[in-house]
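Appendix B, Record 12. Input sequence as logged:
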Amino acid sequence: MVGKKKAPKRGKRTPIGDRVTFIAMMDKDVVADIKQVAIDEHRAAWDVMEQAAREFLGRRQRQKAR
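Logged structural output:
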């Protein structure tokens, strides 16, 4: 079997930077909307979720500071 490469396992991704895998349960409509945003913006769904989480945490921190 010279020249044949093993196909990569589906669902496995190489970590980007210091990121870790995180699993959460969400409403199916929310997940569908997140995926659509990712498609529309040519981004990964994890990137959309990370941005949303950072914005939420920033708002929360500002509210606590008051």
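The chain has a mean pLDDT of 87.
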